[in-house]
Amino acid sequence: MPKVISIHSYRGGTGKSNFTANLSTTVAAKGYRVGVVDTDVPSPGIHNLFCLEPEQMDKTLNNYLWGESGIEDAAYDVSANVGLTGNGKLYLVPSSVKADDIARILKNGYDVKLMNDGFRRLVKTLELDYLFIDTHPGLSKETFLSIAISHILILILRPDKQDYQGTAVTVDVARQLNVRKMLLAVNKAHSKLNLEALKQKVEETYSETVAGVFPLSEDIVQLASEGVFCVKYPEHPVSQEFAKVAQQLIEG
C-alpha cells in the first residue's frame, strides 16, 4: 500500500526541503517509485535540489489547482537529474516560481480538497510506492490537510528554543488531527553537542520517536542546493543518517 509522508516544521530555516529531497531520493534509490509535491506554494524551492530549472517547468502544481491541467501533467521525472540508477523512480510536482503566480495564490488561496484529490490521483496514475509532501512552514488549513491525510508525519526541528516551543504546538495539533504516525528529526545540530543525549532529550520532551539526528554540515552548505547531497556523497555521515531514516519508513 502506498505511503503518504509529510515533511513539516513549525518555522522556516530548518532545512525542510533539503531533508525532503535527500530522504525521498534515498528511498527511490532502494528501488521504489517515489513522488514529491512542493506544497510550499508561497516560497517554492525544492526544484533546485532536483536540478529542475524554472524554464523546464511547463506545468506546475499551480496549474492543477487552477483547473488548467491534470496533476500528473505537472509531474517531472527527475531520476536522471539527481543521478539515480537502477529501478527506482523519482517524480517532482513543483510549485510555480513566477511572482504573479505566487501573488495569485497568496491573494486567493486554493481549494484544499482539490489538493487532497490531486495527491490520490498522483499516487494512482504514477503507481507510486511513496508520496512525500514538502509543506509550507507553520500552521495553516493547508498544512492541516497534509498532516491529516499522511500515514507518517516527520517534524523537523533544530536544537533551538524557538524550534522547541513551536514543535510542541505542532505536536499537539498533530495529535488532535489523529496523525497515524509521527517521527521527529533533529537537524543542524552543532558538532559540540552530544547527539545521542540530544536525541534522548527530544524524545523525552515530546514523547515521540526521533528518527534521526543530523549534524550541522559545512559540506551540505558548500553544495548550495545544487543537487542531492546523499547521491553525491553516499558515504558521508549525513547520508548514512538519511539511510537509517529511510529504512524506518520502509519497515514502518
Write a brief caption for the model:
With 252 residues, this protein is α/β, with parallel strands linked by helices. It has helices at residues 16-28, 46-49, 61-65, 79-82, 99-108, 112-125, 141-149, 161-176, 195-206, 218-223, 229-232, 237-251; strands at 3-8, 33-38, 76-77, 89-93, 130-134, 152-157, 182-189, 209-215.
Architecture overview:
- The protein has 252 residues and is an alpha/beta fold.
- The protein has one domain (3-251): 3-Layer(aba) Sandwich (Rossmann fold), CATH 3.40.50.300.
- The protein has helices at residues 16-28, 46-49, 61-65, 79-82, 99-108, 112-125, 141-149, 161-176, 195-206, 218-223, 229-232, 237-251; strands at residues 3-8, 33-38, 76-77, 89-93, 130-134, 152-157, 182-189, 209-215.
- An 8-stranded mixed beta sheet has the order 3-4-2-5-1-6-7-8, sandwiched between helices.
- Helix 1 (16-28) crosses helix 12 (237-251).
**Order of neighbouring strands in the sheet with most strands:** 3-4-2-5-1-6-7-8
Helix segment tally: 12
Give the structural class. Answer: alpha/beta
The CATH topology is Rossmann fold
Beta-strand share of residues:
15-25%
**Largest sheet properties:** 8 strands, mixed
CATH architecture: 3-Layer(aba) Sandwich
Mind sketching the topology for me?
Elements: E1 3-8, H1 16-28, E2 33-38, H2 46-49, H3 61-65, E3 76-77, H4 79-82, E4 89-93, H5 99-108, H6 112-125, E5 130-134, H7 141-149, E6 152-157, H8 161-176, E7 182-189, H9 195-206, E8 209-215, H10 218-223, H11 229-232, H12 237-251
Parallel strand pairs: 1-5, 1-6, 2-4, 2-5, 6-7, 7-8
Antiparallel strand pairs: 3-4
Helix pairs in contact: 1-12
Protein name: MinD/ParA family protein
Keywords: ATP-binding, Nucleotide-binding
Organism: Spirulina subsalsa FACHB-351
